[in-house]
Amino acid sequence: MGLLKIDDLKVHFPIRGGFFRTIVDYVKAVDGVSFELNEGETYGLVGESGSGKSTTGKAVVKLNDATSGRILFEGQDLSKLSFGQMKPFRKDIQMIFQDPYSSLNPKKRVVDIIAEPLRNYERLSVGEEKKMIQKYLDKVGLSPDSMYKYPHEFSGGQRQRIGIARALTLKPKLIIADEPVSALDVSVQAQVLNFLQDLQEEFKLTYLFIGHDLGVIRHICDRMGVMYRGRLVEEGISEEIYENPQHIYTKRLIASIPDLNHEMREKKTNLRKRVAKEYEQNHSKYFDDLGRAYDLKPISNTHRVALR
Amino acid sequence: MEKPILQIENLTTSFKIKDKYYMAVDHVSFSVSENEIVAVVGESGCGKSALALSIMRLHNNQRTKIEGEIKYRERNIVTISEGQMNQIRGKEIGIIFQEPLTALNPLMTVGDQIEENLTFHTKLSKEKKRLRTIELLTQVGIPSPTRTYDQFPHELSGGMRQRVMISIAIACNPSLVIADEPTTALDVTIQAQILELLKSIQKETKMGIILITHDLSVVAEVADRVIVMYAGQVVEMGTVKQIFTKPLHPYTRSLLKSIPSQATNKKRLHVIDGMVPSIVNMNRESCRFSPRIPWIPCNAHEESPELHEVAPDHWVRCTCYKHFYFKGLQRGEITNGIT
Q: What is the pLDDT of residues A113-124, one digit of tens each?
């Protein structure tokens, strides 16, 4: 049984216009996405900007309302819950945001930032709270005296770790990491990625890892889904998708990853040209008349592709 | 070897912080020839953007001090007047900035922004300028140039905006273009397209490009020569082949090792100990990378590290590379850093 099951999720944003600001059309940010997360695994969602990957993540924590579909967390449909009913679940699902510069309140001290979720859910004495925060600061590799500092006193990687500490305090089961390393340098990125893996082992966490860097996704994810214009075009075990991409969009994405081996330049350029050509020629094989991707069809037990 | 367009000798850029000057770019020397892409890589804070802005003389001269020589076609542009610099900036040397949304003026149409450059540097008539602009937009691969001409930056996607930035930079056929993180804000598929575009423009115009980036895979993809910077200094310099197949400096090797790739699948990534030093409190005498490789004995480092030519055109700073090994690996075990 999966920890999180997303079933035909749709998030449509209305476009208002005309004289009475009536709804003229919808932006179909997420348009029928289904996938499942098992306990203890890392599931990656990749796609370009605007493909709906962040919207999907936000819909799970209800930062966006789902238009239709079900979000089953341990069997309970979150999409039907009211704000108040959602409260106990918020404890189990936490989020790490992309930009460590704008996701921490600059007017709060680190201690207040990390304690905020604790203060919402648990009644701890000042001493207990302090102990708890020190424990988590220690876990994320920050010194205890950083408790009374402000976010601007930290570097990007350290800030991201404060964000992670904040997400951990309530002992969540699922963490939604929305591009947690995109804003970081390679060496800092390596630190944060290692660290996320250590925490996963220690706390038995499940990650929904949203990203656009295919190298990172390949490194950290067990399974992944590729999103294009609000739809999943390919889904399955990451290794299988990287080795044997079936959908043209996935092929394009993988072909455009720059290669560290400079001798592959020519080959890469040719591959890209070939894929771009195939993309133009066989458009109808992969997308319907409206430019929507088809529904996912299994090609093996662990690999599903959106083909006609 | 072709004649260099730009020759930088001992360029030092210092910023004033609380009445004292601190070097952000520390005695950097290199040259760029025609038809060549020189990549400057390093992490944030290593001085690579400060270097780019120094070449363009875009620093606030109240708070910055630029020393050394930047020779553009035998002319030292550090000492020339602002008026003379204005003749070079945009016409001879173009620049592409990182974030196209903040670098473009939101209140001007795309056409006007490109024409601004032409108005300043050429005497073309209004009609000719318009034609040239549309030609430029076509050259950078914008699908409907006549429509885009009258559009505003917010109406375009990130990739299209970056194309507009490029067309501004190349409007007057400069012989050198500085591209400061041109693809960082873009998606991978768009990144590949923009890099392809830069290469194809270069093929036509034979311009030199200084590509400033933190992404080593982008470097491997397009560059001819690579300059690796750490804490304001050049730590290693060589051809792409030398840097990627035989990296020597511990920093270059560590950086290459920390990139997630196919081989690292689920394993732990290499992490460089410690943090990038701040320019205010940094030990400028000894090897600047030494605090981050504490397991290498002190006597492996030079007292005041210099660049050594280890192979033709391959330069490495300090002697510590000879003794460097990754922690956890046996000493002497050969790793090229890409393992």
A: 999 999 988 888
**Domain residue spans of chain A:** 4-229, 244-308
- The percent of residues in chain A predicted with pLDDT above 70, rounded, is 100
Q: How far is CA A281 from CA A275, A278, A289, A296, in A?
A: 10, 5, 14, 21
d(CA A28, CA A45): 17
- CB distance from A116 to chain B under 8 Å? no
Which residues in chain A are contacts of B265 at CB distance < 8 A? 218-219, 239
CB atoms inside a 10 Å sphere around CB B150: 11
CATH code for the part of the protein at A4-229: 3.40.50.300
Residues B87 and B192 occupy one common structural domain: yes
DSSP one-letter code for A51: S
Last residue of one domain, picked from the residues B189, B223, B257:
B223
Both ends of chain A: CA-CA distance in Å? 29
Looking at this predicted complex, what is its ipTM? Answer: 0.80
Beta-carbon neighbour count of residue A75 at 10 Å?
Answer: 9
Look at strands A296-300 and A223-228 and give their pairing.
unpaired
Which among A30, A96, A27, A82 has a CA at the least distance from the CA of A59?
A30
Which residue in A179, A33, A25 sits closest to A100, CA to CA?
A179
Which structural domain, as residue segments, surrounds residue B295? 233-323
Last residue of a domain, one of B223, B249, B281: B223
Per-residue pLDDT reduced to its tens digit, B167-223? 999 999 999 999 998 888 788 888 888 898 999 999 999 999 999 998 888 999 899
Helix, strand, coil in percent for chain A, rounding step 5: 40, 25, 30
Q: What is the mean pLDDT of residues B141-149?
A: 90
pLDDT tens string A68-113: 999 999 888 988 888 888 888 888 999 998 888 888 999 999 999 9
Q: With contact defined as beta carbons under 8 Å apart, do B260 and A219 qualify?
A: yes
Q: Which residues of B touch A259 (CB under 8 A)?
A: 217, 220-221
Question: Model's pTM, two decimal places?
Answer: 0.86
Chain B residues touching A214 at Cβ < 8 A: 188
Chain B nearest CA to A198, separation (Å): 9
